[in-house]
Structure formats: structure tokens, C-alpha cells
Amino acid sequence: MTDLPMDDQPGQRRQKTFNNLLTLKALNQANGRQRMKDWMTWYESLNEQERARVDHHLQARCNEISAQFGKPRRMPKL
Fold first, then answer.
1. What global pTM score does this model have?
2. For labeling, which of 30, 34, 39, 68 is most exposed (least CB within 10 Å)?
3. Which residues have CB under 8 Å from 54's CB, separation 6+?
């Protein structure tokens, strides 16, 4: 036996995979921020009538989604 540390191949692979996931997450967040910025720029360029139409469409979609999940409820204290 030796006193030198053994290479931890599974640990190194896990660390590399974890680092890749963090990189992908950071890229996804940056892309999301850019998409939101682009959308806000587009929304601000609309006139009042177009904005009202977009708001109505968004409200309808939000209502559809909230109907799927029902009324929000508080979680009981443990």
C-alpha cells in the first residue's frame, strides 16, 4: 500500500457532471433573462390597443393555468 491518495474516478466524474449542470443552469438563466428583456422591449413598443389585446390573452392563459391547480391553500403547520 501507499500513502499517496488514490484517484477518485467516480468522484471526479460526479464533480465534472455537477459542474456541467451548473454551467447549463447559468446559460439557461442568462437566456431566460435575455428573452424577458426582449419581450419587455417588444411589449413597450406596442400601442394601447395592442397592449390591451396582449394583456387580455395573458390573463386568459393565467386563468387556464390557475384552474388546473385550484385555489391556493396554506400548508398546515407541523
1. 0.63
2. 68
3. 43, 46
Q: Domain for residue 40, yes or no?
A: yes
* Structural domain range at position 35: 30-77
Residue 12 domain-assigned?
Answer: no
Query: Tens digit of pLDDT for each residue in 4-55?
Result: 566 678 788 899 999 999 999 999 999 999 999 999 999 999 999 999 999 9
Q: Has residue 42 been placed in a domain?
A: yes
C-alpha cell at 74: 396554506
Please name which of 40, 33, 37 lies closest in space to residue 54, comparing C-alpha atoms: 40
Q: Is 23 inside a domain boundary?
A: no
